[in-house]
């Protein structure tokens, strides 16, 4: 018989040390009550001895390796780290992070020296049973994807990636008109030439505008679909993990959304979450958009479409490369604070002014002999009102704010038929 208790939070974008005060101690005490303590680790670890990539996942995410001590002191013992920042500092940054994580003793999943390493389940052995974690990202530059080893060619270090294809559907007459308009210009010349010469595949019943797929349909709209090859590979990993462990968790980093609403997952993400449960996972843990998405109970297993942020020190990065400054027409005489001021228009736009980015919840549940009876939610505050220097540090929310945070999560979850009872700063779902 196994009975594994799990506590999970979303993204830990940690760039500076957290003070060990009463708030820190309360979080530590909470996490240490559980067998498995999970977060998504969203920065690269190095001492700026590596070369930056020319583009980033939004910020060139970097922290000194010592921040791992904060993660460990809080009690985390298993982390995912496949995400859109894996290649911010080229392969050098990825490999230094891999080195520091391997030395830390933390169980970590989602990135490796090749696809086999990146995609394999990683196991946490506890006194009450064994938990497997599979970590996947869909939001990432193609340069950050790991590749399979061949007998004659090395595999590429990188992340375990679930690719997807968006299909934008228009009426047949609209597609005809669109093609006529585009082919009067050279906008799509490269794609058309690549298809003619066999370097790219055309699409049946449609048209590619560079990498954008337009298809003819009776009903206009946009849908996204999983890459079937990636889905099959990840399903095989879940199959392996469920035979080797008592509990299987799939972590999925995805910023992709439905339309303009960041709180709605993309079609493919919802399909993938259900596929994971159908394949044997006990829970799907989503993160990425830096805000909460709802909770769905599917076949008596939880799908957390996004747990939001746990630590978000995006505006406390120590250094950024020249490309960061170029975005804002700054030069070598400027510093990080100047660049952050420009990006946020002095804290009047972007993530810095979105309260939802700095409020979330920790979730906990127990898997007993493969079944989950209930899920509990503890609301978290990340100091939205504290200004750049202290914003992004986690603590348990007070009862007034906690009730509001849980009510907002409950409203999002109601869209999936999930009911959250709220009492005494605690949310409860009976599965």
From TrEMBL:
**One Pfam match:** PGA_cap
Q: Which CDD domains match?
A: MPP_CapA (cd07381)
Against InterPro entries, the record matches this protein to: Capsule_synth_CapA (IPR019079), CW_Biosynth-Accessory (IPR052169), Metallo-depent_PP-like (IPR029052)
* Lineage of origin: Bacteria, Bacillati, Bacillota, Negativicutes, Selenomonadales
Biological source species: Pectinatus cerevisiiphilus
Per the similarity annotation, which family is this? Belongs to the CapA family.
Which residue ranges does the record assign to the Capsule synthesis protein CapA domain?
5-314
Q: Which domain of life is it from?
A: Bacteria
**Would you tell me the protein name for this molecule?**
Poly-gamma-glutamate synthesis protein (Capsule biosynthesis protein)
């Amino acid at each position: 018989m196994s009975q594994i208790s799990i506590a999970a939070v979303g993204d830990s974008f940690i760039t500076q040390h957290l003070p060990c005060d009463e708030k820190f101690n309360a979080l530590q005490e909470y996490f240490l009550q559980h067998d498995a303590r999970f977060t998504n680790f969203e920065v690269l670890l190095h001492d700026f001895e590596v070369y930056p990539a020319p583009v980033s996942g939004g910020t060139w995410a970097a922290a000194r390796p010592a921040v791992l001590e904060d993660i460990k002191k809080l009690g985390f013992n298993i982390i995912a780290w496949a995400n859109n920042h894996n290649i911010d500092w080229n392969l050098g940054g990825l490999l230094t992070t891999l080195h520091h994580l391997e030395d830390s003793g933390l169980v970590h999943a989602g990135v490796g020296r090749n696809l086999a390493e990146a995609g394999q389940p990683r196991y946490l052995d506890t006194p009450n049973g064994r938990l497997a974690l599979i970590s996947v990202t869909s939001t990432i530059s193609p340069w950050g994807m790991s590749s399979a080893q061949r007998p004659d060619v090395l595999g590429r270090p990188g992340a375990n990636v679930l690719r997807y294809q968006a299909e934008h559907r228009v009426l047949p007459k609209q597609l005809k008109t669109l093609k006529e308009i585009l082919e009067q210009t050279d906008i799509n010349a490269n794609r058309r030439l690549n298809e003619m010469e066999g370097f790219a595949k055309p699409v049946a019943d449609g048209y590619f505008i560079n990498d954008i797929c337009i298809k003819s349909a009776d009903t206009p709209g946009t849908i996204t679909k999983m890459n079937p090859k990636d889905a099959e590979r990840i399903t095989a990993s879940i199959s392996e993990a469920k035979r080797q462990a008592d509990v299987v968790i799939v972590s999925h980093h995805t910023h992709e959304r439905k339309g303009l609403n960041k709180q709605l997952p993309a079609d493919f993400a919802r399909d993938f979450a259900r596929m994971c449960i159908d394949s044997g996972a006990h829970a799907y843990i989503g993160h990425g958009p830096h805000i909460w998405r709802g909770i769905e109970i599917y076949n008596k297993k939880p799908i957390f479409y996004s747990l939001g942020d746990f630590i978000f020190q995006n505006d406390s990065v120590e250094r950024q490369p020249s490309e960061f400054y170029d975005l804002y027409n700054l030069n070598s005489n400027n510093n990080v604070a100047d660049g952050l001021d420009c990006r946020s228009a002095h804290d009047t736009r972007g993530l810095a002014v979105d309260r939802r980015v700095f409020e979330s919840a920790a979730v906990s549940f127990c898997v007993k002999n493969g079944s989950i009876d209930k899920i509990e939610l503890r609301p978290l505050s990340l100091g939205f009102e504290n200004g750049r220097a202290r914003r992004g540090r986690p603590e348990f929310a007070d009862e007034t704010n906690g009730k509001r945070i849980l009510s907002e999560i409950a409203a999002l979850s109601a869209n999936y038929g999930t009911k959250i009872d709220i009492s005494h700063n605690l949310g409860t779902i009976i599965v």
